[in-house]
Amino acid sequence: xxxxxxxxxxxxxxxxxxxxxxxxEDLTRRLRVSKTSLYKVVASKDExxxxxxxxxxxxxxxxxxxxxxxxKNILEKLRVFTQSFMELTQGFDSSMYGDLRxxxxxxxxxxxxxxxxxxxxxxxxxxxxINEGVLRPVNSAVFYQCISASMTAIASPEFLxxxxxxxxxxxxxxxxIVFHGIIA
Length: 184
Known about the structure:
By secondary structure, the chain is an all-alpha fold. It has helices at residues 3-18, 24-31, 35-41, 45-69, 74-89, 94-103, 105-131, 140-154, 157-162, 167-180. The termini are far apart.
């Protein structure tokens, strides 16, 4: 593992503990390196945050490629795709998204664009399921709007905080409702 990869993994662990309020000192302790060594790998905390967001996006995109190119049926692809997305964000709390939005605007925009792209992939899988007759036909435009609005709403730090939820818990609940409905 390269120094940068170790740094990114350490930063992800710090984010899970301290949200984006971790310090470079926290990283030096976790990595057991000096600040000088740390700054040979990255120039600033902003660069660390950018590298973390890039790694999360790139690792999910690799997983997505595996899912889409695999020979699983469409329902399994949908399930694995949404489960993988949930796992990507597991351990991140509402303050992380709030801090990202407030203090790292370009990274927030990158994250929102990534999330929107994944909704589009989900919608393509849904349409494939409808075309194959595995899923019942639904108005894709309405379903898309519901998913898009729901993902935006549950990512709201205020919503998560007011309901004492992590983002992962909110996504899990949304996934359950989408796949299993609300009828007992």
